[in-house]
Amino acid sequence: MTRPARPTRDRRATGFFVGFLVVALLIAGGLSYFASSDPDGLDSVTLEGCSVVETDAGEQLEGTCIARNAEDHALGSGPLADYAVDGADGTVGPAGVIGVLVTALLAGGLFWLLRGRGTPPDRDGTSGS
Amino acid sequence: MTTAVPTGEHITAMHMSDGLVNAPTAAAFGLVAVGALVLAARRARRDLDDRTAPMAGLVTAFVFAVQMINFPILPGASGHLLGGALVAILVGPWVGTLCIAIVLVVQALLFADGGLTALGTNITNMAVVGVFVGYGVAVALRRVARRSRAGLLATAFVAALLNTVVAALAFVVEYAIGGAGGASLGTVLVLMVGLHALIGIGEGVITAATVGAVASVRPDLVHLLRGAGAEPAGAPARTEGSPA
């Protein structure tokens, strides 16, 4: 694959990319447990005017607010819905790790296919495998 | 009458749900989003090569990860990164638009976060408006960004703060056009701008820290520091794009 033309540089690039991915995995897999569960800016606005009431059927909205118009998500019963694995408590980390890996593969693959023949001129052109 | 609240255990829904704007408005912004993505995909090609393509993939995954981290802004309210300025500075506006759109699609399809018919409005607000506002501010301040490390961090902060507020304004515009009702336009405007000015501070800090970290290790991978008027100092000969 890669000729020994610029081994140092290639190793350095690979090291940076691996490090970047590890940081993303740590954030999604670990730091996510410490994320605030309060409504975000948009949700706060759409909930303005309503109060959230606990009932037997779960949380319900009372009052007049934009969120009363919100529809349930069509894929709300999916295996990773709401950043939990099969709805299980305490699985935001694994769900986040899956999300990072899926996103990296999807985006990386798409961008790899989209890239022009514009290999940098200082490369020896063998890195495409 | 009551309505079920669609909230998760740890992380609440982060983007527009279905039903907040009426169907014609959702459809119209769906078309806007598709048009923007087609254009972005065509223009992104020239910013993508063997080195920037993997970088763009990782930036996308990083934005997904950081968007999971809601930080408190007021009692009972949180915010999270949108990422427009971040991706624009690191990989350019066209690739950046695709990055955020991919995050939004993954979130909507896999994590039930952000409605399906709301994808058009969410992509318009965060992947198009947010990215290009962030990019415009960053380019306007590019000379500052290139002068010093502090200048780069300040540029990233300001670009991110403004990308957050203007993306929030884009929602207000959509609500004005076809909002489903439940709150007055004035209330929505004041609350959206006020809350997102606070969120924008967090967005600015995260964006500056991330851009600063990448620039200290691999300045050649920061799109804003490349491009028009090649950078003399920060970019050794290995940097791509410099005409041989």
TrEMBL record, chain A:
Transmembrane segments: 12-35, 95-114
Keyword Disulfide bond recorded: no
Domain PDGLE: 16-115
Cell compartments where the protein resides: Cell membrane
Superkingdom field: Bacteria
UniProt-listed Pfam families: PDGLE
Keywords: Cell membrane, Membrane, Transmembrane, Transmembrane helix
Protein name: PDGLE domain-containing protein
Species for this entry: Pseudonocardia humida
Lineage: Bacteria, Bacillati, Actinomycetota, Actinomycetes, Pseudonocardiales
